[in-house]
Amino acid sequence: MMGKSVVALEAISKSYGTVRALDGVDLTVYEGELLALLGPSGCGKTSTLNVISGFVDPDHGRVLLDGEDVTHQPVWRRGLGVVFQSYALFPHMTVAENVAFGLRERGVPRREIDGRVAEALKLVRLPAAGSMRPSHLSGGMQQRVALARALVIRPRVLLLDEPLAALDRKLREEMREELREIQRAVGITSVFVTHDQHEALGLSDRIAVMHAGRIEQLGLPREVYEQPASRFVADFIGASSVLEGVAVDARTVTLPGGERIELRWPRALTPDSLVRLLIRPERVELGGSGPNTVSARVANVTFLGDHSEVRLELGGGVRLLATVRGGVVIGPGDRIRVTLPPDAFLESQ
Amino acid sequence: MIARGAALLLLAFLTLPTIVVIAASFNPTAILSFPPDGLSLRWYENALTYPQFRRAAVNTVIVTAASVAVALPIGTAAALALVRYPVPAPGAWNALLLSPLVIPGVAAGLGLLILAARLGLLANRSVLVVAHVVLVLPFVIRSVMVSVANLDPMMERAAASLGARPWRVFWRVTLPLLRPGLFAAVLFAVIVSANEFVVSLFISTRVTEILPVAMFTYVVNYTDPTMAALSTLFIAATFVVVFVADRLLRLATMFQIEDPR
After folding, report:
1. Which helix (H) or strand (E) holds A10?
2. Do A242 and A348 touch, CB atoms closer than 8 A?
3. Rg (alpha carbons) of chain A, rounded to whole number
């Protein structure tokens, strides 16, 4: 299903003084896909985007667009559409002039410009906003204008830097859907930067999780969530709990509090070896019976509307996070039974 | 209450000289006195027809226009460099560029006089222009720097990403967004240059002197209210410039500033 490579980064490195912002990044973006660069701030995701767009010159490595080496090509010649976090709409121009900017710079005939601007504004559902000033638009509308301005030049690739970060929560969810629809309708190859795992999981075809200037894992949203390649990925996507224990036989681990945990892993454990277990909060069951049912003390409960977060403490002070739908009747200090299903554990390096 | 009284007192103190001069300019007799004995416009007629004042007025327009035209691009470039780029020893640059504000006019004037005499340029307006460029630069740089600091570099990046070459980015995005600072810079530069006296006195001749110098020379020789009339006209002209510029500036800011959303 992978099409043709549109963007390729080969062994990209970039340092600022002694700080390595990018440390050998390899990445291929395929025709028509929406790829998310996900990670905490300072992980190198924005630098990666800026290397593609040409705002940052890499120290080493090559940038290919449609197979052509553009590493040393200036920004203005690359023909990419960029949507900035702050939108960066020109305040001294009307919405239509903003959208027309790239077309005028390309020397597109004036009559064609008007038609294409109108078409682009229609695409982002702002057909009547052409004569308005950007400052008179709401955040969501500014976001659409920025998108129209980037798309109207028919760029090879669309690059979006935290496109939804400046919007409030409700609008963000609406725009997320709309962004996805527009991206599909235009069929444009896109790369977007986000620190929000939900945004990355919900919006993208593939996710590149970045950490300390490297890509930790690149894969489908499900893969990244269900088979995290490293402890960092597991921790960053879906706040997992980490349990450290010692293997007693091929498939049983003892936790510091003495609880015996049975695993269902394909590989056999080496007895007496140290084992790190990861478990997603939604896989921890409160109450229940069967294998791996242990006793825990409730440390804290946070009600979040559609779900609640329950912070638990096992024997020996081991912390465990659980999420349950809706509210719960337990409170801090309660002792409860908790079940950790044998197939719920992920292995952590 | 006390603060209000003090403010009124201060206002009176600041405007009193102006009021005295304006009143004295309408005096019908040939002495500078306050309060005036009557009302007359004869000194205005004298001021406007006195040949040396006419010549000086032309000089003022030429020198001011030329120095603003030279100082504006230099100051804009300097402001961009100081705010945007990692200039080595920025403190030293800042001090150097602002030094005309703290160096006494007498010292600067004397220095320029010696230099101009040496170069044989004393009878030339260009010396005045050079001096005025140096004197107005700090005001130009300061005004533009504020606008540069307020300019979001992402605007320029956006323009570049849309295919604009560097000079197109500058022309279509950077310059228009610096407009408020450029307006303020021109305003300051015109006022400073047109009113400059100390340095100009050293390096002007009867042929090249600008209005403030011509007025001083006149006052040294005559004591009739012509001076007061001319001063009144000068005050009125400055007031009009400030008023118009303020209007334009406010309009400009209205179009520039984005809502803080």
Report:
1. strand A5-16
2. yes
3. 24
Structure-token pair, residue B129 = 């222009």
User: Can you give the pLDDT at residue B251?
Assistant: 54
Torsion sign across C-alpha atoms A84, A87, A92, A94: positive
DSSP 8-state class, residue A167? S
Contacts of A75 in chain B (CB under 8 A): 157, 160-161
Report the largest interatomic distance among the alpha carbons of chain A, rounded to a whole angstrom.
78
Amino acid at B228: A
Burial class of residue A169 (count of CB atoms within 10 Å of its CB; 0-12, 13-18, 19+): exposed
pLDDT tens for A143-180 read 999 999 999 999 999 999 998 887 888 888 888 888 89
Interface of A with B in 106-125 (CB under 8 A): 106
CB A47, CB A21: distance < 8 Å: yes
Confidence of residue A134 (pLDDT cuts 50, 70, 90): very high
Going from the C-alpha of A174 to that of each of A140, A141, A164, the distances in angstroms are 9, 12, 10
DSSP for B9-27, please give it: HHHHHHHHHHHHHHHHHT-
A28-52 residue pLDDT tens: 999 999 999 999 988 999 999 999 9
Q: Is A149 on the interface with B (CB under 8 A)?
A: yes
Decide if B257 and A91 are in contact by the 8 Å CB cutoff. Answer: yes
For residue A270, the model assigns a pLDDT of 84
Contact B75, B140 (CB under 8 A): yes
Q: Is A92's pLDDT higher than 60?
A: yes
Quick one: tokens of B229? 């009339």
